[in-house]
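Aim 2, interim progress: modelling of the NAP-bound target.
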Amino acid sequence: MKIYDLIIIGAGPAGLSAGIYAGRALLDTLIIEQALPGGQILQTAEIENYPGSEPVESGATLIDRMEAQAEKFGVAKVSDTVKAVSLEGKIKTITCEKESYQTRTVIIAGGSTSKAIGCKGEENFIGRGISHCGTCDAPFFKDLEVFVVGGGDAALEEAIYLTKFAKKVTIVHRRRVLRAAKSIQVKAFKNDKIQFLFHTVIKEVKGDGLLESMILANVKDGSEIEIKADLSDGTFGIFVFIGYSPATEIYRGKLNLTEKGYIITDADMKTNIEGVFAAGDIREKSLRQVITAASDGAIAAVQAGKYLDELEEADQQ
Ligand code: NAP
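Predicted structure of the complex, ligand included:
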């Protein structure tokens, strides 16, 4: 079986940046991605804070250019889902749904998945009223009412985006203080179509096929209210942006993880296993942004190259 110099798991900004650096360093590199390249950033309609992304850059166009850049440097890519990993020793095996691959180094850049509300009835309405992606689903809610859950950057940015489609957007947040950057808050407060419901969580969602009503609970006094769709609309939408959970189940018991499941690395993106690195949102860090993901990817690829040089040197002695 062919042995790659480097396998990168995940083709988001961290994985693709790692690919660009590894390709330039002439490492024989494979990127494995289970879905479309891009990860979470594909859901972002406008990226304002990645240097050079002005005047208007969407997550999808930025990723397209990153992907083309990695390809230009000879990086191979397959579409497959990683099911198991064997990371100890000089040769590591990545077992996917369709095939298995061998490599000397691995960069884990698999990102994270959206968290669910956890309320009664939620599973019945995923993709039928409840969404985790404004860019994907906003047009379905044209001239309808929508509710956005969360108080972070994603919730407020998506709420602003949704006002282009929905007739009214209500942000439902469990506290009074918003976590989002102040500049985003200012924009949201200025937007006439946006309202806020603080100290509030969704307790239950109901409907016969379509989302028709929901029970909201006030976390301070425990009081509950039922919100019903306008009769003329028949339904409304809920967009959930309450953070992400790292996709690290297959690494449990192998790599050192935090309590919340993020991979622990040092400043060189090294994990507790030699030749195994982690980059982007999947690792423990203080700021999860495109720019920090790209930075992690670059560092991880350079360190993977150094590790390969050391292996080669040791083999020659
Ligand atoms: P986040 O910053 O972790 O915010 C999650 C929000 O959801 C918080 O307001 C949190 O409330 C709330 N929440 C969490 N669990 C909840 C639950 N079970 N029920 C109700 N509410 C819940 O997540 P994010 O907004 O998705 O952002 C993730 C990362 O991406 C962040 O680092 C963010 O800066 C970054 N991001 C950046 C941009 C940008 O810079 N343009 C855009 C999008 C995302 P509490 O505040 O009470 O904890």
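The domain at 122-240 is CATH 3.50.50.60 (FAD/NAD(P)-binding domain). The CA atoms of residues 183 and 302 lie 35 Å apart.
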